[in-house]
Structures are given as structure tokens and as C-alpha cells.
TrEMBL record, chains A, B:
Protein known as: Deferrochelatase
Organism: Raineyella fluvialis
Gene for this chain: efeB
Subcellular location: Cell envelope
Cofactor comment: Binds 1 heme b (iron(II)-protoporphyrin IX) group non-covalently per subunit.
EC number(s) per entry: 1.11.1.-
Keyword list, A-Z: Heme, Iron, Lyase, Metal-binding, Oxidoreductase, Peroxidase, Signal
Pfam families per UniProt: Dyp_perox_C, Dyp_perox_N
SUPFAM superfamilies registered for this protein in UniProt: Dimeric alpha+beta barrel
GO biological process: iron import into cell
Protein role: Involved in the recovery of exogenous heme iron. Extracts iron from heme while preserving the protoporphyrin ring intact.
Residue span, Dyp-type peroxidase N-terminal domain: 54-211
Top EC class, one word: oxidoreductase
NCBIfam families: Dyp_perox_fam (TIGR01413), tat_substr_1 (TIGR01412)
């Protein structure tokens, strides 16, 4: 109990739940629900499901993630709507640490909840939903659900980038759900139960477990490290930068006249980036730091100072070479090189059992949220693929772009505006 | 700091570190090492590496696991010995939360430690090493390292069991390392650095991430749940049952005259068991409980009582049918049906990204430690594969048997006795 309360303080739960008036909703959520709470524990480690924006975006990045992409298998608009309503109902329960579908069922039926999270607290679970381009125009070019006219202009399958090596079975999808939690069993349980609810309407296309966060999305968080051993998330867009969030993250009314339903939402870019860690591990520290443009120990820019100091791209060494090299990742990705654009990165380290030739199958499941992928992601990815010194150590193996609708109120359901 | 200390109490760290006089070694370990401690935090969440037995066996099961199997790629006995010595040195550092290889290196070299765990505490990391049958007789039948005469009789590749569907690339191996920790990034980091140290001597053969423990190995732990939603680990062999550990877990001097080096050690059985969770989820609660012989909510035997009460296999319902069905998992696996044999189970739930036909690739990475696999594992697995009602929902896709040498003292190295 005391440990639970301490955790609230340590991780900054509640205080940062959603931007705005979401704090109150946290306490409400704990009482309002129908299902059984899985433990007697208080509402510690719980984020409000409701709010102007979906949770799981500016929410302080949880430690673990399970991401899933789905193909819709029905052609019925009604069934698709019913699925989104069912998912919303289940998401309210899951994020509150309750069992899906309420209490126990008669013995003659399968249990409504699959059970592996019984006894576990909410664990900071957030569920973030998105819709992919193929929901609007299916593989056969047809508009299955009569949504074609409402498709946001920016919601196009990402283009082929230089050196992409994409596996179609790890890419794209009609719908996506990002489950983040501090306990991976809780995130897994959520996706599994949503998958189960979708039976007959949508089928799992691919999924990805992320074992360690590689970003901070709040200045209250310590910067974690990626599998190249460097701090990752330092210069990220953070929950506290409210003006910047409106500028770079949230779609505004009027951004896209065809897609007013997306106002208050955002775009999710997912890239499964395999990292050649064995090659990296044979590279000198000097070269590694040069590639990123930051030092490994502290994450400080190579132009000097400390982690959160501004990189000085004009600084040179005595021989005139820039201290932050021209082809370095941080220089190429910096807003000053990208018309001032920023993004909110929210990626996770992953490893999959499969190894070939003694290589570990491991890397970064890159997730970023942007107001406009056409300006904030695509140009930068093109630049990085061509010029970034880091690219030599990477291979992009999966890809997806999804539009994440705004958050919901007490009676709303995810995606409601799209079908209105 | 306070949270750290609370954790010591909550998880029972230190108190259970190794059976016997290992408590003192914890405090020692924190000072004796060479490398840099990764954080300023105290030795909370740290298990002694040294002791009469290897850690990671009776250690209270940590929340997460990363398991790796290796092929030895050299034919040089000296290099194999050097690897085991290097691994032991690194394991002392890693389990103490220190960087591998001590402090920072000159810029012109690759860093000695890959860095992704910098800033993370030891997180209860244990590293448990084992040797497979193929170390004694290679694929080509040769005794590469002159160890043939010391091969324990029970260290044979596990036989083919009914319904096995094994993937050779997820099975067997010359060496194994089980890394368990409460933070998966710490477990991953450990395996990655050991893999790196092995470069040129041994290569990763397969690896498996486990995201949630499915057993308790101490009566101080709550019983967790497997992906079928049931409590798993209730009737497990526990650290506190010291007499039982000697009887069922630790190899004794004289057990095998050829393999005295294994006294104080044990055998590790690994089985990657894929679970048909979609089919399970369509099964009624009644049937699910009948299959296990326990109820889902509490884990109590169907003969009545509470979780830790003894199952009564003679109890029948009014119509004379046994309350714990003849083909139920718990009945078939119970010591009373197995000449009194028990095992220490230490498995983990897993999921791998790969999905086919909309099915989740998920299941149980079953790990068990036994004094004699020929008596304690093989007969039971044969029985379960033939008669267990659970088998219909399972598919064994990976397999391995390894002998885990005893623990080491301050100057020892893992496997030393085997080469003496
Ligand atoms: C495995 C691949 C990648 C790794 C290991 C990586 C790592 C890093 C690191 C260590 C930093 C510096 C610390 C920080 O500010 O977070 C950074 C910054 C950044 N990265 Fe990446 N990154 C990867 C891929 C990408 C991709 C694909 C993009 C977008 C197309 C991207 C965009 C950015 C941006 C925008 C910054 C902040 C630049 C600034 O404002 O200073 N990164 N990345
Ligand atoms: C996915 C596969 C499996 C699942 C889901 C599973 C699940 C369970 C559950 C729920 C229990 C009851 C609670 C407990 O005492 O832990 C149990 C008990 C047990 N299982 Fe399994 N098990 C699996 C595979 C195996 C295998 C392969 C073996 C060994 C060959 C095994 C050996 C045992 C033993 C020895 C017990 C304790 C029986 C007793 O003393 O009451 N299990 N298992």
C-alpha cells in the first residue's frame, strides 16, 4: 500500500494523466466502472482513459509495450462500428485494472476475461487506437466501409525509403492498438483480450513486444537507453511543452477539411528497425559518439555542456572540423535542419527469439507521433536513410502509419467522429 | 533509497540469496568488484553470485527472463576454458550491477560494456550456466574437448515425445545461460554482453525472452498466472523446503560416478511450449478448470479447500466421478502419480512477434530443474503428452537439456570441476 503510493510519486502518475483536466477523471474512473477490480489495491498507477486526447501519447512513457496491428475481415460497417464500441468498453475496464466483461460468468461459458492479469494492478496501462490507410481503401481498391471521402490526405501508406527492407507481414494494417504498461503481462493481456473481442470482425496481422522504453515523454522522467547504449529521448517533445504540442503533435480543426474527425488526434508512425548490434559493438567509442553527435556517458552534445544543453552545430575543433559531424544523427534530425519540425518519439527496444548466423534479432521499435507525417516524418526519414552515419547499422524491417482519433468523453467511443 | 530498501523486504532479496551462507557474500560482492557500479544506488535487489549452488534456481523467481543457448565454435579446450572464465568474471560484474570490463576505455576502442544498462540497478539479476550433451559429443560424434569420460549418464538429448513438433533452431545447444531479472533490459544486456565475450569461441544458437514469471520458487512469493489464466507454481518445490531440495533438486556426490563435478549442481530442462490460446479462450470455464484440476479464481484443488491445500484425488461427486478428473494436469503431474518425484519449475510466459493466420505466437517457456531428468522429467512428459487433457491445447516447439554445475567460491569459475 505504501509502496503503491510511493510509486505514484516516483513515476509521476496522476499528475500527468492526459493534458488538461484529466486528473479528475482518474479518481472517477476508479469508481465508475462496471467490472471487478482485479486487486484490492488503490487506483495507483492508473491513467484516465477519457480526455481530449487519447492516453499513451504524452503519458510519461511506460516501461513496456505490446503493439498490435489488425486486418478488418468484415465488409459490414455496422460490425466495424460495433467492434470499436466493444474495444472502447473493454479499454475502459482494462486501463482501470478491471476484468473485461465484468464479474464471473456461468460455468458453461468461456470466461469473459482471459485471466492472466488477475491479481495485477492497472500498471499504468494505456491503450491507444489508430486507423490505417487501408481502412479507407482496401487492398482491392474498394471503399469497404464508405469512409473514402473522410480519409485524411496525409494518411497514405509510407513511401519506400532508401534501404528499406520491409516484411509485409510486419507492416501496415487497418487498425492498430498500442498497449503500454509498466508490466508487460498487463500489456499482453490487454491486446489479447482486444484480439479476442475482434474475433470474426478483425484479425491480428502482426504484433510486437517492446521490453524497454527508449524515450522520455515528460521532463519528470530519466532518459532511458537504446540498444546502442546511448541515451534516447533527450531532445524529445515533452508533455510539459504545451504550446509545442499544439504546434507539432495534435491535429487541429481545419488542418484537413476532409478529416475534421481527426482534430485533437495525431498520426502514429511505427518502424521496426533491426539494429546490427554485433557490428556496432566492434566500433570505437569515438566513432559511436561521432555517429550520434552526443557522448555516451551523459548524452551531452559533442559541442559541450550537459545532456539538456542545446547542441551548437557551429562549434568546431582546432582543425576546423565541426564538433557535431555533418552526417551525425542528432544534427540531421535536429529541428534546425528540418524547417523547425519536431516529433514525439515513443519507441521501445525489442528482441525476437529468431537468430540467424549467431546474430541477435534485436533493435528499436520506433514509434513517433506527429501532426503531419508528410512534413514531419517522411522528409526526415529520407534524409536519414541517405545521409545518416547510423543507417549503416540499421535495417528497417516493418512499417506502419495510422491516424489516431482524439480522446473520448464518458459516453464516447473511439473513432466515433469518423463514422458520424 | 527508501523504495530500494522496501524492495529488499518485499521481494525477500538477500534473505534467500542462495541456500546457506550466501547472505554474507551479498555484502562482500558489493565491495569486492573491479568495475564501475552503474548507479549510486545501494546493493538493493542484488543476489550473491557466489555460493554452494548457482543462483537463479531457488532464488525467488524474478519477473522477467532472457534465455540463450550457444554452439561452441572452437575445438580448442583452452579457449573453451577461457570463455567460461571470462563469463564468470563478467557474471560477477553483471549480477552486481556493474559495467562489464570495469571503467571507461580509450576512445579508440569499442566500449567494454555495451551500455544499455547504464543507470539501471542490478534488478535482481541472476545468471545460471549449463552445459548440453553436445558439448561432450559433438554433432559429428567426436569428443572435441576431451570431456567424453566425464559426461553424466543422464545428460542425453531429450527423447522425442508424442506430439513434439520441435524446431531444431530453437532446441539444444552446447552451453546455456539463463538470465533472470526484474527488469528485462538488464537480462537482455547480460546475455548480449556474454554473447559478445564469446565471439570467436561460441555463437548464439537461439534465445527466448520471457515476459512474465509462471512460478513461485519461494513461499514468500505470490503465485503468478500463465497465459491460460490459471495460477501456476502453487505446488512447486520451494526454496524453504530444504530437505526436499536435497532430495529432488541438487545432484549429490555419488549420484553419478562419472560426473562428480556435478555434485551441488542440477539439470535444467527447457521446453518452448506454444499455447493455442484462441482455442482455449472458446472453452468453458468448467472445462478449463476440469483440465487443470484446480479452480481459476483461487487456484484451489477441485476437491475443495484453498490454494495450498492438498488435492484429494479420492474425492468424488455424488454421481461417483472424481472431483479431480483422471486426465487432469494436476492429477497426472502430482508426486503421488510419479513415484514421489517433484521438480522445481521456473518458467516464463513468452510471445514472439510472428503470427500466422491471425494466431498469437505465445505460450510458456517451461524451465524445470531436477536432480535426475531420467526419473523426474522424461516419464512425466511421456505421460502428459499421452494422457493430459491440456495437451490438446499445446505444442512443444523447442527443447533443451543442460547440466548446471555447482556454484563458485571467490576464486572459482563456472564449470571448473568439469575441466579439473
Ligand atoms: C534505431 C534507430 C535509431 C536510433 C538508435 C536513434 C537514436 C537517437 C539518439 C541516441 C538520439 C539523441 C538523443 C535524443 O534526443 O533522443 C536521437 C535523436 C533524435 N532522433 Fe533518433 N534514432 C533512431 C532512429 C530515428 C528515426 C527513424 C527518426 C525519424 C525519422 C529519428 C529521429 C530523431 C529525432 C527527431 C531526434 C532529436 C534530434 C534533436 O532534436 O536533437 N531517429 N535518436
Ligand atoms: C503450457 C504448458 C503447461 C501449463 C499451462 C501448466 C500449468 C500448470 C498449472 C496451472 C498447474 C497447477 C498449479 C501448480 O501447482 O503450479 C501445474 C502443475 C504442475 N505442472 Fe504444469 N503446466 C504445463 C506444462 C507442464 C509440463 C510440461 C510439466 C512437466 C513435464 C508440468 C509439470 C507440472 C507439475 C509437476 C505440477 C505440480 C503438480 C502437483 O504437485 O500438484 N507442467 N501446471
Amino acid at each position: 500500500m505504501e509502496a503503491g503510493l510511493m510509486q505514484v510519486g516516483r513515476r509521476g502518475f496522476l499528475g500527468l494523466a492526459g493534458a488538461g483536466a484529466a486528473g479528475a477523471a482518474v479518481a472517477l474512473g476508479a469508481q465508475a466502472g462496471l467490472g471487478q477490480r482485479r486487486t484490492g489495491a488503490p487506483a495507483a498507477g492508473m491513467y484516465a482513459f477519457e480526455g481530449p486526447h487519447q492516453a499513451g501519447i504524452v503519458t510519461p512513457a511506460q516501461d513496456r509495450m505490446y503493439f498490435a496491428s489488425f486486418d478488418v475481415t468484415t465488409r459490414s460497417r455496422e460490425r466495424l462500428v460495433a467492434l470499436l464500441q466493444d474495444w472502447t468498453r473493454a479499454a475502459r475496464e482494462l486501463t482501470a485494472g478491471r476484468e473485461v466483461g465484468g464479474g464471473t460468468l456461468p460455468y458453461a461459458d468461456p470466461p469473459a476475461d482471459t485471466g492472466e492479469a488477475i491479481g495485477l494492478p492497472a500498471s499504468g496501462l494505456t491503450l491507444t487506437f489508430g486507423v490505417g490507410p487501408s481502412l479507407f481503401t482496401g487492398a482491392d481498391g474498394t471503399d469497404r466501409f464508405g469512409l473514402g471521402g473522410r480519409r485524411p490526405a496525409a494518411l497514405e501508406t509510407l513511401p519506400h525509403f532508401p534501404k528499406d527492407h520491409l516484411d509485409p507481414s510486419r507492416s501496415d494494417g487497418d487498425l492498430c492498438v498500442q498497449a503500454c504498461a509498466d508490466d508487460p503481462q498487463v500489456a499482453f493481456h490487454a491486446i489479447r483480450n482486444l484480439t479476442r473481442l475482434a474475433f470474426g470482425t478483425a484479425a491480428l496481422r502482426w504484433s510486437q513486444l517492446g521490453f524497454g522504453r527508449t524515450s522520455s515523454t515528460s521532463s519528470s522522467q530519466e532518459t532511458p537507453r537504446n540498444l546502442f547504449g546511448f541515451k534516447d529521448g533527450t531532445a524529445n517533445l515533452k508533455a510539459e511543452e504545451s504550446g509545442e504540442l499544439d504546434r507539432h503533435l495534435w491535429v487541429a480543426a481545419g488542418d484537413d477539411p476532409r478529416a475534421d474527425w481527426l482534430a485533437g488526434g495525431t498520426y502514429l508512425v511505427a518502424r521496426r528497425i533491426s539494429m546490427r548490434i554485433e557490428t556496432w559493438d566492434r566500433t570505437s567509442l569515438r566513432e559511436q559518439e561521432g555517429i550520434f553527435g552526443r557522448d555516451r556517458a551523459q548524452g551531452a552534445p559533442l559541442s559541450g555542456g550537459r545532456e539538456f544543453d542545446r547542441p551548437d552545430f557551429t562549434a568546431t575543433s582546432r582543425d576546423g572540423a565541426p564538433l557535431i559531424a555533418t552526417g551525425s544523427h542528432v544534427r540531421l534530425a535536429h529541428p534546425s535542419q528540418n524547417d523547425g519540425h519536431r516529433m514525439l518519439r515513443r519507441g521501445y527496444n525489442y528482441t525476437d527469439g529468431d537468430t540467424s548466423l549467431g546474430r541477435m534479432d534485436a533493435g528499436l521499435f520506433f514509434v513517433a507521433f506527429v501532426r503531419d507525417p508528410a512534413r514531419q516524418y517522411i522528409p526526415l526519414q529520407n534524409t536519414l536513410a541517405r545521409q545518416d552515419a547510423l543507417t549503416e547499422y540499421l535495417q528497417h524491417t516493418g512499417s506502419g502509419l495510422f491516424a489516431c482519433p482524439p480522446g473520448v468523453g464518458p459516453d464516447g467511443w473511439i473513432g466515433e467522429g469518423l463514422f458520424a
